[in-house]
Design brief:
Length: 485
């Protein structure tokens, strides 16, 4: 039977299994399918005019605007590609040296990320094809300059902010706002398919923008004092301002997604009273607020500092969150440089340590279903105190890339204690917490965006095994095989 002759009920079921890209292709196949509606559950906004234009088009569409549940704000900016080339003679169509170097580093990174893994991924063939088809560097640089000029016009007239506010009024089903500086992903492999990123020419090798400052090449946490400082997090400031003004009351989730990059909101945001802190508190207080993912940069602070985590302002802010909160995740950039003397994650000094219950008011969240902690300096006994305090509603726990204080425990010892002392094994299988642990794959080179995730092994160890069982040895054997003891 031809596809065009299928009953509508059967065709509708088939469409449910198709991706958005497949539906777009099907709409082009024939006139009969041209009216098949797209499934648009999220809209993208950034300082790029293409994203703004598409965002407004969705907001103006009487059918599509009702299906948007998430706005993703791409905070990456192209910066100034002309920086450092003042007086530079672009003779012979040669781009500035820094730009040429960045494009070469992109190609080295592609090979480097691939060589560190025995398993090759399906998308690598497509990347290889783009490497072969990449445009001349000078043309790439000119295009980057063009994109930068366009976004600078947006920064001047604020059209991205105006469009965002318009969308908040036009998307009645909106539930989540996600901010990310990682939308561009890596060369020829963007993280999100934003309209702007889909419009990039095939083979476009360019200096990947990240937007927010981070500890990529240095360990330095940016201040939160002047307007110039704060403007680096332009999207974040506008989001919490709008939500604090009670725009889009249906929004229940605020997510800062750095996708394992060493960046995020500066932890100095929590150092002193400021308007933005009050606005964030107002967001957390919203009735029915249920999810908050917070990524912070904390590198470069002297040993006597870390006041951002010890002054109580993070806890006071989180304590204002609705009792309906179901999901909390805190991530920092701590530990991105491993201890090369020992090759182990365990590091840190006692005066860096902050008890977790001094940060997380667990007792105020009786409906919590997910707790996540990534790249944080911990002690094993303190992690156990927090796990014991978690409510019975908890279903998933992520403890990834943690740095155990010297003589303060280890992942292996933590799992042993969790298995032997927590009452989780006595609960019904359907309500037992699922624990996920993330580890960097290699000590000598950090591969951003990739990691080793242990879920099935941890579940078997905690609930199905013992010291002598085959399942109970799965995680233990993995630790010994990799030297993580």
């Amino acid at each position: 039977m031809r596809l065009t002759h299928l009953p509508k009920e059967l065709l509708d079921k088939i469409l449910l299994d198709l991706t958005g890209k497949d539906i777009k292709n099907l709409r082009l196949a024939c006139k009969l399918f041209s009216d098949i509606p797209l499934r648009l559950s999220r809209a993208f906004i950034s300082v790029n005019p293409i994203d703004i234009e598409v965002f407004r088009s969705i907001a103006d569409h009487e059918a599509y605007r009702h299906g948007v549940k998430e706005i993703i704000w791409d905070e990456a900016r192209f910066g100034n590609p002309r920086s450092g080339c003042e007086g530079y003679e672009l003779e012979g169509r040669v781009a500035p040296y820094d730009y040429i170097h960045a494009c070469k580093e992109n190609l080295y990174e592609i090979l480097g990320r691939r060589s560190m893994f025995a398993v090759h991924f399906p998308f690598e063939k497509a990347i290889d094809e783009e490497v072969k088809a990449q445009m001349p560097v000078f043309e790439s640089w000119l295009l980057c300059c063009e994109y930068a000029d366009r976004q600078n016009e947006v920064l001047k007239d604020g059209s991205d902010i105006k469009a965002f506010e318009y969308g908040l009024e036009r998307f009645p089903a909106l539930e989540r706002i996600t901010l990310t500086p990682a939308a561009h992903g890596f060369t020829f492999k963007p993280l999100y398919g934003t309209p702007m990123l889909r419009s990039l020419p095939y083979g476009f090798n360019y200096n990947i923008p990240r937007g927010w400052p981070g500890t990529y090449d240095h360990l330095q946490c940016e201040p939160w004092e002047t307007e110039t400082d704060k403007e680096q997090w332009r999207g974040f400031r506008e989001v919490i301002r709008c939500l604090a003004e009670n725009k889009a009351p249906s929004v229940k989730d605020l997510v800062i997604d750095v996708h394992q990059l060493p960046t995020g909101l500066t932890c100095h945001f929590f150092d002193n009273p400021c308007r933005e802190y009050d606005q964030l508190v107002a967001v957390l207080r919203r009735p029915g607020f249920r999810r908050f993912d917070l990524a912070l940069t904390a590198g470069g602070q002297p040993s006597f500092d870390w006041i951002s985590f010890r002054n109580g302002r993070i806890r006071r802010a989180l304590a204002e969150a609705s009792e309906d909160l179901e999901h909390i995740h805190l991530r920092t950039d701590w530990g991105d440089e491993p201890d090369f003397n020992t090759g182990l994650d365990s590091s840190g000094l006692p005066y860096h340590f902050t008890p977790l219950l001094d940060i997380f008011p667990i007792e105020r969240w009786p409906k919590l279903r997910h707790f996540g902690l990534s790249k944080f300096l911990v002690r094993q006994d303190d992690v156990m105190s927090l796990l014991v305090a978690l409510p019975a509603s908890i279903r998933t726990i992520e403890l990834s890339f943690l740095c155990f204080l010297n003589d303060g425990g280890s992942y292996k010892a933590l799992l042993d204690e969790m298995r032997d002392t927590l009452d989780w094994r006595t609960r019904d299988a359907a309500v037992r917490p699922k624990v996920k642990i993330g580890l960097d794959g290699y000590y000598s080179d950090v591969v951003y965006g990739r990691a080793i995730w242990l879920e099935r092994e941890v579940d078997s160890f905690l609930y199905e095994g013992g010291p002598g069982s085959s399942r109970g040895r799965e995680v233990r054997r993995w630790w010994y095989d990799t030297g993580r003891i």
